[in-house]
Specification:
The chain is mainly alpha-helical. It has helices at about 35-45, 50-65, 65-80, 80-95, 100-115, 115-130, and strands at about 1-5, 20, 30, 30-35. The structure holds zinc ion.
Length: about 130
């Protein structure tokens, strides 16, 4: 699957002919074919406004108690499946034995713990869980 974008401004080429004057950048340009998914994602993710919108939407979603309950219930259900559990445990074990993964994890963890905000958050989450 592919779609077309303007060769100059890389916005979706929605005209039937090529070359033509692109309505977005107003330049004589032509259509270039690009793989649909990556192009759409790339264009979107290069747009800071779109990125802000998405992250706000994701944040909002995760703050929704109903959504949280749904995700939790789904996870719980999945973990009740012995096949899934065995698979996850095996994958985790395998990953834990990978020295590269372990090194990466410890670097990330160290970095996180150097962030006072992250530390405070983890502490709060931890004590909350033990109520
Ligand atoms: Zn253009």
């Amino acid at each position: 699957m592919s779609s077309c974008v303007c060769a100059k401004c890389k916005k979706p080429w929605e005209m039937s002919s090529s070359p033509a004057i692109c309505p977005v950048c107003n330049q004589v340009s032509f259509a270039i074919a690009i793989p649909e998914v990556s192009a759409a994602v790339k264009n979107h993710y290069q747009d800071p406004e779109y990125r802000a919108k998405i992250s706000a939407a994701v944040k909002k979603r995760f703050q929704d108690p109903e959504y949280q309950a749904k995700v939790k219930a789904a996870a719980k259900k999945r973990w009740q499946d012995p096949g899934y559990r065995a698979k996850q445990n095996a994958a985790m074990k395998k990953r834990g034995q990978d020295p590269e993964y372990r090194a990466k994890r410890s670097v990330v963890a160290k970095k996180c713990w150097q962030d006072p905000e992250y530390r405070a958050k983890m502490k709060a989450a931890h004590s909350k869980g033990h109520d």
